[in-house]
Design goal:
118 residues; 5 helices
Length: 118
């Protein structure tokens, strides 16, 4: 029933001369502005929720977590890989005698550790 009343009101206003709508618009200018602005919900949402979320995502999530935590961790792991590769490149130089020496030291260390924990 309410829908039919709305249709009848719209047909009365917009089916007649344009002066009828303009007269109502001027008479109820505040209500027309309020209703034309869709109760300004979009503007309120933007100020209360949208702007703070954009600030939070830019300042906190992008700078702190993404750039500092994630990028810092990945760059640190890359630096650790470069450093350990530089150190291990001196150890693994192709000398068979040095490899045999490291194997013997490992066996002696494992035996000492196992005898100590028996």
């Amino acid at each position: 029933m309410l829908a039919l009343a709305g249709l009848a009101g719209a047909a009365f206003l917009y089916g007649g001369p344009p002066e009828r709508v303009q007269a109502l618009q001027q008479r109820y200018a505040g209500a027309h502005r309020w209703l034309s602005g869709k109760y300004f919900i979009d503007e309120l949402y933007e100020r209360v929720i949208g702007r703070p979320l954009v600030w939070l995502s830019d300042r906190v999530f992008l700078n702190l977590s993404d750039r500092w935590l994630l990028d810092g961790t990945l760059n640190g792991m890359g630096a650790l890989g470069r450093w350990s590769g530089g150190v291990l490149s001196r150890v693994q130089n192709g000398s068979l005698h040095r490899y045999a020496w490291f194997v013997m030291m490992g066996i002696v260390g494992a035996l000492l550790w196992s005898w100590r924990h028996v």
